[in-house]
Amino acid sequence: MSSSNCVIDVKNLQTFFNTENGIVKAVNGVSFSIEKGKTLGIVGESGCGKSMTSMSLMNLVPRPKGYIAGGEINYYYEDGSKIDITQYDHDSEKMRKLRGNEMAMIFQEPMTSLNPVYTVGDQIIEAIKLHQDYKNKAELRSRAVKMLKKVGISAPESRVDEYPHEFSGGMRQRAMIAMALSCNPRLLIADEPTTALDVTVEAQIINLMGDLQKELNMAIMFITHDLGVIGDIADEVMVMYTGRVVEKSDTKSLFSNPKHPYTKGLLNSRPVIGSKKRLEPIEGSVPDLLHLPEGCDFHDRCPEAMAICKKEDPPVFEVEDCKVKCWLYRKEEKAS
Amino acid sequence: MTGEEKILEVNDLKKYFPIRKGFFKRVVGHVKAVDGVDFTIKKGETLGLVGESGCGKSTLARTVLKLLEPTAGNVIYNDQGIKKDLAETEGKELRKLRRNIQMIFQDPFSSLDSRLSVRDIVAEPLTVQGIGKNRKERTEKVKELLEQVGLNSYQMNRYPHEFSGGQRQRIGVARALALNPELIICDEPVSALDVSVQAQVLNLLSDLQKELGLTYLFIAHDLGVVEYISDRIMVMYLGKIVEVSDADDLYESPKHPYTEALLKSIAAGDPFSDKPREALEGTVPDPANPPSGCKFHTRCPYCSDLCKTKEPDLIPTLDDYDSYVACHFSDSLDLKSFEK
User: Fold this and answer.
1) Residues from chain A contacting residue B280 (CB–CB below 8 Å)
2) Has UniProt tagged this entry with the keyword Cell division (chain B) (predicted)?
3) Which ipTM score applies to this complex?
4) Residue B148 pLDDT more than 80?
């Protein structure tokens, strides 16, 4: 991957939590990079470390229990210089400049992530004031209005003075996006931004994000558990399970030729319109990260488990440009 | 699968919430959450109910069960050939009727009492209805129910927080089954779950339906889920039913512009198609101040003058006596089916 277009490059990231019962490895050796104007989708069930990966990128891992135990998160500035986020304190000047200005985040719950006692406009202005050099009040306000207009909120001049409770769910999410984009970030992290929304609104938000991405040439990291959305928006997909990446490939081959049994399971669990075929769910549920099974973390739910899966954790194999962490692909590795 | 026998008949059901203002809390208007809904459910079928949030799906479910007092209308339940109107029944009689109609809720985290053990949660309907001679007998029944929904009976002394989301939803299902109901109202039972767990619960619900001959009213906003589980589907918009149709027909030949818009906005999940999702603009209007005429006219791409003044009735469509649509121009419009 050419480094000139690379916005973020994560190598072997490990984010752990100290708990009374031991160390929970929420993110365990995750590597990926995203280029300008591209979208990386991250999928997996709840508790697979998706959100903790994004929190690590922002250097916002809940303290004091959580910490980044190892790895590198290299962020590349516009001029080509880089910064390793893991080397800085979460409250350092450098980090505060990075958040908002360079990378921004939208969360799942638009109601809980907006402050109910400030107007939407004030909250957008706060973000701009902190990160940009606007001083004049009128200028700040017109910038907030412009942002609301950009994300498709009608009558932004009057809406800017309204409170979050006066907005509908879809509009709140638009306001969140307006806030995130107010400082023209080069990397947008979207953590399940459409999960709480209706299909109609979801379609609006996805289209909006796609348009804004083209306009601003942002890199997007899109976290979701809905594979339908991933198919629509992502260029590349990373499937996570128990804090590890089990499969990484471009979106088309992930859908047409899923490799890891977990990916296949996720795809088969989804009801497909027009087919009344019985769903084939993945049996059981995500294991407790403190009591992971021996061998491959997925073997006790895996329909294709072999003897070796119970004993040894599989390494990552490269198959047809995809990375798969599964013993099934051991032979192909040898052949190539 | 579907018998012709109607198990539930809802006629012109209305639920208005008063808006009160001022010192004397004068009623200044009404939120018409459910505004004249008619439908029937046949024995053994699954009737799906879809619509955006805020269009009255959950209120409709609660009003049918009389958890909310209906403002007007009838809910006629066919109790072994004897027709009883739930809207008119009260007290003991109502409690007896509710044995036959149970509900599964959306949020498996808030719909189970965190201070009760699973045994007590599932046994509660039995205790309330006075079923089973003693505690021991009821415990036996609870064990049976837990096994039936795929949980281990030794887990019954645990508390809800010890279970995952999918398991909690199974406990909710077990509780709903405790009284051997005929009809179960499922209010978004899988919306809060991960895809893999969602598939497990959907399979469980359809297995139980076959095994016990249950009838479902299934509410969801995920059109894929609804299509998978339903025999017939109702589409609701702002307190009104706008289309009722056979599940396959609804996706192949939608009759109402709103249905078409919903189908267009589904994530196809196909990375090979470049066709963008066509999003329906705007949001559901304020039900306290609904638009005149057809309630969908403000967002409808096919809107004409007639739509702004006259509200269409829900009438049977030409080709099928069992499907209904509420649109002035449903016969002349050429609406697109769902494309993969």
Assistant:
1) 200, 203-204
2) no
3) 0.80
4) yes
- Give the pLDDT confidence of B195-234 residue by residue, as tens digits: 888 899 999 999 999 999 999 999 988 888 999 999 999 9
Is B200's CB within 8 Å of A281's CB? yes
Residue intervals of chain B classified under CATH 3.40.50.300 are 6-100+182-199+211-325
Question: pLDDT of B16-65, one tens digit each?
Answer: 999 888 888 888 888 899 999 999 999 999 999 998 888 889 899 999 99
B227 contacts in chain A (CB < 8 Å): 271, 273-274
Give pLDDT, residue B269.
Answer: 67
| Boundary of a domain, candidates A127, A159, A184 | A184
- CB neighbour class for B157 (10 Å; exposed up to 12, middle 13-18, buried from 19): exposed
Q: Residue A319: which domain range?
A: 262-335
Q: Which residues pair with B84 in a beta bridge?
A: B77
The pLDDT of residue A1: 47
State whether A229 and B269 contact (CB < 8 Å): yes
Q: What is the CATH number of domain B6-100+182-199+211-325?
A: 3.40.50.300
**Is the separation of the CB atoms in A56 and A8 below 8 Å?**
no
Q: What three-state secondary structure class fits A321?
A: coil
Q: Residues, chain B, total?
A: 340
* Cβ contact A273–B224 (<8 Å): yes
**Hey, what amino acid is at B230?**
S
Q: Do A228 and B222 touch (CB under 8 A)?
A: no
Q: How many domains in chain A?
A: 2
Nearest CA to CA, how far is A271 from chain B (Å)?
6
B241 is written with which tokens? 């039913």
Contacts A273 to B, Cβ<8 Å: 223-224, 227, 251, 266, 338, 340
Q: Which of A125, A159, A184 is the last residue of a domain?
A: A184
Q: Which of B199, B227, B271 has the CB atom closest to A273's CB atom? A: B227
β-bridge pairing A322-324 and A6-19: unpaired
pLDDT tens figures, A246-260: 999 999 999 999 999
Distance from CA of B95 to the nearest CA of A (A): 35
The DSSP 8-state label assigned to residue B70 in this structure reads -
Residue of B nearest to A233 (CA): B271
Q: Which residues of chain A have pLDDT under 50?
A: 1-2, 335-336
pLDDT digits (tens, 9 = 90+) for B227-240: 999 999 999 999 99
pLDDT at B1 over 70: no
A221 phi/psi in degrees, rounded to 5:
-110, 115
Confirm whether A108 is domain-assigned.
no
Please give the pLDDT value at position A108.
79
Q: How far is B132 from chain A (nearest CA, A)?
A: 33
List the structure tokens of A91.
Answer: 């409250």
| Beta-carbon separation of A203 and B277 below 8 A | yes
